[in-house]
C-alpha cells in the first residue's frame, strides 16, 4: 500500500540553475506525480535563470522572504542573510498555512510534510510554531546535500581576518547542527555525504540518516529529437563535454589540460565544450570563466564563448574550446546525446547529477575517483574513474574514448549506462525512496525538540564574538 496523499511544502533558498536546484525540482516532480499536493517556497527565483518547471506552471512556486533582507551585504555575510531571508519566508509561510491567503478545500484533510534542504534555519521554527491541525500529522524531513560549515572558506586574507572569519562562523556552525536536529528525519544525497554528516554532527544527534539519491527523468532520454542524429553538431566533430557551474572547486581546468594532452594531430576533428551554470551576479563565475579562457589560450588552444544556442552553433570550425554560459536544458540534452565522453572534473563531489544525466542517454563518463561518482559510475562498464591530479591518466582515457573503442564497445557501455540510470537514479526510484522515508517518519512519533534555551545562551555568546570581531577589524584597519 502506497503512502497516503499529503500536502508537501518544500523550502529551498534560491531556485537558480545548479545541481541542488535540479534535485529539489525533481523531488517536487516525483511527489507531485504520485498525487501529493506540492508547493515550493523560495526566497529567490529569476524566471530568466531557472529550470523550466520552476517557471512554466508545472510546479507551484511561491517567492517569499525576499523583501526585508538582501542576499548579502557588500559581498559579505551570505550565511547570515540567507538565514534571515529563510526566517522571513517561514513567517510568511506559517501565516498562509494558518489561513491567511490559504484556501480551504478537501485536500486540507491530508497530512502536512515539510521538506527542507541546504539551509536548516527554518526547521526549529516550523517545529515549534507550525502546529499540526487536529487529527492530522505533521513532519519535517531535512534533505542534506553537505554540511554548510565544510563549504565555507576560512583561509582567505591575513591572520586577523581569518580569525575574524572563524569567530563569525562559529555560531552558524553550531546553529546548523542544532537546527537540523529539530527535523523528524534526515536523509542525505549519497553515501559519501551521509558519512560526512555523521562525522560532523554525530549519529545520535540526527538519528538514522538514510540515502535518497538524486535522479534524472528517464523520459527525456527517449524524447530527444531524431533530427539531432541526422544533423550532427559542428559538422560531426567529436565532442568532449564538461558540464558544471563556473566555480573553481569544479576544476574544469583539468578538462582543458587533459584535452590539450592529446596533441595537435589527435585534436583534429574534435572540440571540447565547457558548459554550465553562469550568473553575472556571481563574481567567481565571471572570474573563473576568464581564468579558464586564459589557460586554454596559453596552451595554444583557440577559444570562443557563447551565451546563446544560435551563436554557439555558428562559431568557426577551428575553435578548439567552446565555453557555453548557462546552456539551456534542451540544448544540454542534445550535447549529451551527441558527445563521445563526459569529463566530470570535481574532486569529492557530494553526488554529481551530471554523470547520471550522461548515462541516461548512453554517454560514458570520465570522473574523479572520489565522492559521489564512486557510487554512480561502474569502472569499465559505464565509464572510468581516475585520479584528478593525474592529467596524463585523463588524457589516456580521452584517447581511448575517441579512438580506442570499437562500435561494439560503444554500444555495450551505452546500454549499461542507460540500465544503471533507470534502475538506480530514475524519477521513479527517487519517488519510491522518498515515500519510504516519509512513511517511516509518519509512523514514528515526532522527534522531541527542546533546545531553545541553548539559543539564548548562544545569542549571548554571539554578542561577545561580534564585539571581538569588531575589535579585530578595527585594529586591522
TrEMBL record:
<dbReference type="InterPro" id="IPR027054">
    <property type="entry name" value="ALG2"/>
</dbReference>
<keyword id="KW-0325">Glycoprotein</keyword>
<dbReference type="GO" id="GO:0102704">
    <property type="term" value="F:GDP-Man:Man(2)GlcNAc(2)-PP-Dol alpha-1,6-mannosyltransferase activity"/>
</dbReference>
<protein>
    <recommendedName>
        <fullName>Alpha-1,3/1,6-mannosyltransferase ALG2</fullName>
        <ecNumber>2.4.1.132</ecNumber>
        <ecNumber>2.4.1.257</ecNumber>
    </recommendedName>
</protein>
<feature type="domain" description="Glycosyl transferase family 1">
    <location>
        <begin position="230"/>
        <end position="415"/>
    </location>
</feature>
<keyword id="KW-0808">Transferase</keyword>
<keyword id="KW-0472">Membrane</keyword>
<comment type="similarity">
    <text>Belongs to the glycosyltransferase group 1 family. Glycosyltransferase 4 subfamily.</text>
</comment>
<dbReference type="GO" id="GO:0005789">
    <property type="term" value="C:endoplasmic reticulum membrane"/>
</dbReference>
<keyword id="KW-1133">Transmembrane helix</keyword>
<dbReference type="Pfam" id="PF00534">
    <property type="entry name" value="Glycos_transf_1"/>
</dbReference>
<dbReference type="GO" id="GO:0004378">
    <property type="term" value="F:GDP-Man:Man(1)GlcNAc(2)-PP-Dol alpha-1,3-mannosyltransferase activity"/>
</dbReference>
<keyword id="KW-0328">Glycosyltransferase</keyword>
<keyword id="KW-0256">Endoplasmic reticulum</keyword>
<feature type="domain" description="Glycosyltransferase subfamily 4-like N-terminal">
    <location>
        <begin position="17"/>
        <end position="219"/>
    </location>
</feature>
<dbReference type="InterPro" id="IPR028098">
    <property type="entry name" value="Glyco_trans_4-like_N"/>
</dbReference>
<feature type="transmembrane region" description="Helical">
    <location>
        <begin position="455"/>
        <end position="474"/>
    </location>
</feature>
<dbReference type="Pfam" id="PF13439">
    <property type="entry name" value="Glyco_transf_4"/>
</dbReference>
<comment type="function">
    <text>Mannosylates Man(2)GlcNAc(2)-dolichol diphosphate and Man(1)GlcNAc(2)-dolichol diphosphate to form Man(3)GlcNAc(2)-dolichol diphosphate.</text>
</comment>
<dbReference type="InterPro" id="IPR001296">
    <property type="entry name" value="Glyco_trans_1"/>
</dbReference>
<comment type="pathway">
    <text>Protein modification; protein glycosylation.</text>
</comment>
<keyword id="KW-0812">Transmembrane</keyword>
